Structure formats: structure tokens, C-alpha cells
Predict the 3D structure of the following.
Amino acid sequence: MSAIFNPRDLLMQATPTRLLPITLPTNLVIPGLDQLQPNLDMPPTPTGFSAVGSLTFINMQHAAPTFTQGHGYMRTNIYGKIWTGGARPTFADAVKITSFTGQVAAHPTTPATTWHLWATWVSRDGIESLPAGGTNGIVAATGEDVERLVAAMTGPGKPFTVVNEPTTLADGTVVPAGTYTSNAYMGRFVAGRGQIGLLAVDDARIASASAAKLITGSVQVGVHIGSSNYIPGLQGWAINGSGAAELSNIIVRGHIEANSGKIGGNNITAGGIYSPNYQTGVSGWGLDYLGNAAFNSITLRGAIMGGAFQGYAWPANGGTGFYLGPPGLLLGNPGIGRFVQITEAGNFYAPGMSIENGLLTISQLNVIKTANVAGNAITVSVSGAGSNLVQAVMWVPPNETMRIAIDGTCKEATGIELIVDGVTVASIDAGTGATYTDVSDAGTWTYFPLPAFTMGIRDVFGGANGRGVVVGAVAPPYYAPEPGAASQIVFKALGTMR
């Protein structure tokens, strides 16, 4: 089981002159422990405690509880005992009859009842003070049952009765000495004290009033109205006559309008809400009344979208805008041929191209220019093989320069020429290298019986429209007069964008 320390238990173990030792339970429960570092200091004894009876209520009040022990004031406990005669009660005889927050409270009771009362303060950490009220408490008595007494002492032909000393009626009712009348009409009266069950007043001037409950159509405040525990900047609340107010917390179920203010140090102006260190384009954050925002960084747990987008799907009817959220990024619309999509997996899609699983695919022609590609990054090739003369065509794009390197071999030929765009870029004849001389009726021939190799290079410009360039090799056969004589040629050309 848990326990809350109550000093009343300590007093009940005490003698009038000496307090007995007390051991606090090890399972002490401190209210608010999960929110505050507990402070077990005992609050002070309430000051200014007083009580007065009306006809059917005991009205109690005390000074403002401004203490800080135990993290400040939480509530007031009232202990009481009805006295009907004999020895006066002490705090040990009393029981808790009510609790309240503030300085003023009223406890309902019956007429002609005498109470002995004590008050304690309880801190926010659940520690209760020693009681105010002294040995026998504060005494407060409610008034007699006036209506019953007046009815007994007045009647037809007897509207006014003076009782000089207490009188006991036949039913045992004691009528105190005094003046009794069913109705009284006075131009002016002066009274030191009074107990009134119901009072109707057209106009009143009151220097000081204590009320457990106040119902009013309107309140006009000259200086301020506030809670009994109000300490500026620390606790409680106050509303000044100037309109300034100080509150700890507020819940508004309706509409709020303000020209300026601060929330947690952040500034509220007619132009927007800004952090205290906000400088345009430099530091802090801001949100202006036009909807513009400035932040250093932002983390979104959901999505942000604009234009025709309603979620992670392309808008119908060609609508455009953007979507950014956990599934990915969408811009534009494929329906109008202009869009960008980046998925959460890192795949990228746009008109004519995509990057999927790290593979770039370009599906549209003539979208990449050589100027945007590193030198020697793109190479094309053609090749050919045959007899005597072999040719092929290489395409050079508009306004681009291609360096064409060509190499070739031949045999059974008197020589070989490599040609690019009608220009011989390399040649070799049988006058050099390993050759063979054949003497026949037609004459003497020197030729390459085995393969001979040569190579050349030429830069070609594609012009405004681009063009095809003829590349190839020619190798005359070693014995041309002979029917069916033929050389054997193989060539290869590589074109690299410059």
C-alpha cells in the first residue's frame, strides 16, 4: 500500500507540550512525482485564518498562500467539529469537512450550529502543513432559525415583540433576548454585525467582501482581479483594469484575434510569426501572412503537394503541379509530355530517358550533342572485306568533327591505298617489304604474296547538316592481265567525336 504524509497523524500522537517522533513510511507517495523533482519541505501554517457563520453556511478565508515549499500551494484542507456542549474539541477530535483552492470557501450546515475549525495548506508535492486554529480551533456559529422564531413571537395584533431575556417556549425552543418583528421599514440603519439569509440590494458600497461564490452579470475592475495565490511571473492569474492579463494556461474553444504577441519566445506580428532570431535570408524561421515560409531545414512525416496533385498519382486531364512524399517525387504530367518522376527506390523517369536499377536508357534520338560529351567518349566503327576495292560509309553529325582512323591489310596485290572522303590517308606498294617477283609472258610483277599492313588518320567536319563519309581500301591484283585475277583486302575504320 502507498501512503501520503499527514501532519494531523503526528499531532494525534502528541502531548500538549511535546511532539512524539514519527517514522515516515518507505512507500511515501508524492503527488506530481512524474512531473517535478519532489520537495518534501513542509508548507507553513496558514495565516489569516478566520470563519464566520451566516444562517446556513460557515464562511472561511485565509491569507494568500504564497509559499514555495513543495513547489508551492495546491489546496486548503478544512477540519471541523460541531460543539453542542461540554469540553471544547481539539484538532484530534476534528475530521476533514471540505477542501478548496484559493482564499475563500463556504461550507453548508444547519442554523444554530457551532463549529470549531482548523485549516492546513497542502503543497503540490503532497505535504500538508501544521493546522491553523490553535488548540480549540476557530469558532463560528450559524444564526438561529429566524423565520421560526419570528413566527413564534409575532402574529395577528402583535407585529412587534421585545424579549428582555432568553425565553424557553413550550416546544423547548429557546428564544434569545432581542427584538422580533415580521416586517421592518427604516429610512436608515447602522449595524455592527449581521446574519442574513437572503439580501436584495439595489446599490451597495463595500470596502471589503469575501464570497465563496459570486454570480454577476458584469464586473468592472478598477485595478485588477486575480487569484488568491497570484505572484507576478510565478503563479496564479490576474486581469488588470488596463486589459493586461497574466495566466498560467488557457484553453480557448472559440476565436482568438491579436495584433501581436509572443508564444514560447516566438514573435507574433500583423505580418506573421517569426522566431526571435529571425533575419531574412540569414537565420531563424518565419511564416508570413501571405503563406511564405523560411526555414533552415524541414522534416516532413507526410507529403507536400501543389497544383492539381491530390496524392501520389498523376492528375487527370493533364493537370500539373508537384507531389513530394515518402513514395517519391512527381513533377509535371506525362499526359502533356513534360514530367519527372523519382521513386523511393531511386529510379528516375523523364521524357525520352530513364534510370532504372542503375541503368541509363535513352529512348529519344538526337537529344545528346557531342559538345556535352567528353572528348573521345563516343566512337563508331565500320569495316569491310573483299577484292580489289572495298568501301563503307560513316555518318558525321551536324557541326561535329570526327577523327577517323583506318587500317587495312592486303595480299596477292601490288599495293594498298586507304581512302577517307576521297583522300588517300595511307598507302604501301610492293616496292617495300617482303615481296615476290613473278616473270611471265605478260611481264615481270612484284607483289605481296602474304598480308601487308598500313594505317592512316583524318579529321572530317560534318557541316551544317551532317554527311556520310566514304572510307575504304583499294589494292590492285598482282597479275591484272590474267582473267579472274584478284587481291584480298580487309579494312577497319574507327570514328571518334572530337
In short: Residues 7-141 form a domain with the Immunoglobulin-like fold (CATH 2.60.40.10). The mean pLDDT is 82. The first strand starts at residue 50 and ends at 53. Helices lie at 7-12, 146-153.
